[in-house]
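FAQ
Q: What does a multi-component entry look like?
A: The components come first, one per line:
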Amino acid sequence: MPQLTPNQRAAVEHAGGRLTVLGGPGTGKTTVLVERFAWLCGAPEAILVLSADAERLGPRIEERITRGFDELHVATVPGFCARLLYDEAIDAGLSPFFAPASAADRLALLLDRVDELSVRLHDFRGSPAALLAGIVARIDSLKARSITAQDYSGWAAALPSEDQQTAREREFAQIYLAHDRMLAEQALLDEGELVLRASKLLAERPHARFEHVLVDDADELTPAQRALLDLLGDSRTATTSDPATAAGTVVELDRSLRCRARILQAAGGVGGSVSGEAGGDVRFWRCANERAQAQAVAADVARLLREGTAPHDIGVLVRSVRNEGQIVAVALEERAIPHQLVGDSAFFQRAEVRDVLAWLRLLVDPADAGAVVRALARPPVELRSVDLARCIQIARRRKLDMVSALVAATESPQLPPEARERILAFLKLHRAASGALDSTRPDLFVHRLIERLGLRRQQLFSAQADVVERLRNLSRLGELASAYVRRSPQATPREFARYISAIADAGLRDEGAHPAGGSSAEADAPRDAVAVMSMRAARPREFGHVFVLGLQAARMPGARSRLVEPLPDALAPGDGSRAAHVAAMRRLLSTAMTRARDGLVLAHAAHSDLGAAQPPSPFAEEARVALGADWEDREEELFGPDESLHATYQALRDELVAGIPRTGNRLGELRLDTNLDVTHGVVRYLELLKISALLARPGGQAVAEALPGINAAILQAATAEQREILESSPLDDALLDAERDARARAAAVAARDEPSLEAFLPRRGEGLLLSASDIDTYRTCPLKYKFARVFRIPTEPTLNQRFGIFVHQVLERYHQSDVQGIDQLVGLMDAGWRRGGFGTSEEERQLRGKADAALRRYHERFESSDAEPVWFERGFQFRMGRHTLRGRVDRVDRLSDGGYELIDYKTGRPKSAAQLREDVQLSLYAVGAREAWELDASRQSYLYVLDDEKVPVPQEDIDRDWIADTVSEVADGISSQGFEPTPSYAACSICDYRIVCPAAER
Ligand code: SF4
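Then the predicted structure of the entire assembly, as tokens:
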């Protein structure tokens, strides 16, 4: 039994009646609950424990019980409700075969049947999945307040006014009813419905099944869940940190057993009042940008590990792992720090899960080039980059889908025999799997696909530390398919493939694979690795050291999510208010900060990707003021010489170990070039030896001094073939240049293996041929540039992209016509819409309505302007140093003062002038107009057509030298094939190549 404080003991041994254990984070409330269970324990089966973290709490309680028992009742509230309803399905009026439906299930269901929903007044904003996810979340909020579809529909029908908002609420009421009807048709119950149905059952047939109920974190329960508790009797012990939810006898715990005093003092600045043991280290980082923030964390984590902290005792907390986790993971990877992204969306970012997803996607749609490229690049096919680029070229030139192009490629003389063999292996797998796509059960299909791809086998022979977790992820994919079959017994693998892709895209994980009432916490418990997780998911965790990132005012508190519409004030007073959002965010940050025992860093990125200033969160400021601390500036971190050697050693070691099974497999295949694989493997080992020798060089000796001797010794022992590879390796250059950043080192390490893509670079004379969008893409992410412009992986234009093309075309033709009247414009819109292949779905109808309104406004603006448009879609091309730049300007106006204005149409959301400060496009157009047309534009602007907003780029921001430097920097990067990814939320969330991208997976 642990040492208890007097107040803890008083709570544990409380004699009877309702008890509330009130205390802040880390005050030992959960320990009280565990000990109280043991103290109360006459019959363990007679005690019900409800906790959001049931999976961790259950084993803790089990450990404290000395006597035998049938079954412990430790569950989440929805889990308990599901169990109760299963046991008494007939009394509850339910099918005995009902199944719980996760948010992901419901989203997939609504996506499938979106045409049956009336969503005319709900804006798709380019993403049906996002709109429907927002609707699912709003329904959850209503059920959490016990407001059923019938209640809502009655309320909406009784609204007195007939305005647009009323019409929207009535439309939503219909969607809510349809949602519940669709679930009922499949005998599915969402979590809110489980609680409401269980409450109804308990109210109608009171149960005296449990002598005592223990509730952890009662302040986190929804009103509907609290109402259910009241039906479970009065013998209840609840823990809470909110005095407003306390009832009965209250025992207060006022001393944190977890956080040191300085951490509590900082958290006190944000909200909370608990004392703790003296000490603790709290720092505040003002990082140059998001990448600098991630690198600063990686450098500090590396320091902590060197000083003996265990990886699992370090937590990196962000608002959203999906949006912010990747960039942190890349920085940790650069230093070869073991880490794990934890949380709901992380499952779909795992490499092995994405391998299966890619296969499912390409089987359903052979034109899904991203999925095919991934399947080709990854085991078991592993086609080399240069051969991949050739296959994509064939697909493009012959206008074939990727799978047909691969068939054609097997006859191409350009492909070496080894590449042909690999493509044939792919086609064989493809044939076998596609034959079973409409006839096998989805769970069997997934199981066989995993076996055929050899994914499980590869993992079994893999020497990577996280092999068990990878195997478990593959099993969980199989479980997802089984859960899907249970819900839709007639479904085919094709339907499952569509379903799972939609879920992955929407960033939701299907919790259906977990037993009802289980949580994902156990499955996601990190191995001995630094955990990168969301602040919300970190709630049940504690760490020695915590980094809380992204504390910009725009994110914390930031704006309320626009995806979920606030509930009407009449039904949920204050739900949509700014104050409620700010209070929730304040609580979230306080919770995140108090996960730390000894060390805490609060960090923010002072500038966005585009250079706009981002002030720190007011909450972080309050914490800083509470401690009287200063902001510490953090720039992008460069590696020191020895740190660089250590990281290179670890990266090469991992690569060597990962390559062993691959080479071993090839030995078995008895190819003609097997000896080359073995030679490469031996060279990798020798290079590792070289770095190890450098690390052991005498103190004070420079790398450059030590290297020749070590090289000579190694070369002496090598064969002629190995010597040749060693001598052409770029590793020495990378080692010698210790100041090089991690990207250069990673590129050098990768270049040892990758054949050159030189033939696929956009060469023009001695330089490159580049457009503004090429430059923009490379600056956003060099790997995205490689996928888009070197491989030129075809992508299907999205509805929004097609819409953008439509608007551009209509405007171009409008200005080309002799008369620019509204009738001409409307006629062009009609013709263009039909030719653009748009359909009649609700989303397309909405876009059409937007185009109509926007283009009419455009016409009015054009009519009233005294500027005279003189050129449309005018192209330019000019030389800048060795390189050729080209582009096309949408419109050029002659102004009334005789000057010229360059105008570029946009159909996205308007950016502010500050966000456009580092913008390349219009600056390059201005230089292009001068160089190619000898025209000095006096103005340049973006015209955001849908919002009728014109945003000028100031003349003083057009700096030819800056453009020249930028062009030369980008061109050097492309020429040297520097295609390292630079993930960020802004870039990755709209990237078409996520399925292929290794940086998007863990
Ligand atoms: S997903 Fe992100 S990191 Fe990967 S290529 Fe796209 S932008 Fe780059």
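Q: Is there any commentary attached?
A: Sometimes. For this entry: Residues 509-526 have pLDDT under 50 and may be disordered.
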